[in-house]
Amino acid sequence: MSNGSSITEFLLLAFADTRELQLLHFGLFLGIYLAALLGNGLIITAIACDHHLHTPMYFFLLNLSLLDLGSISTTLPKVMVNSLWDTRSISYFGCATQVFFFLFFIVGEYCLLTIMAYDRYVAICKPLHYGTLLGSRACAHMAAAAWGSGFLTALLHTANTFSLPLCHGNAVDQFFCEIPQILKLSCSDAYLREVGLLVVSACLAFGCFVFIVVSYVQIFRAVLRIPSEQGWHKAFSTCLPHLAVVSLFISTGMFAYLKPPSVSSTTLDLVVSLLYSVLPPSVNPLIYSMRNQQLKDALKKLFQSVVFQKQ
Question: What pTM was estimated for this model as a whole?
Answer without folding.
Answer: 0.88
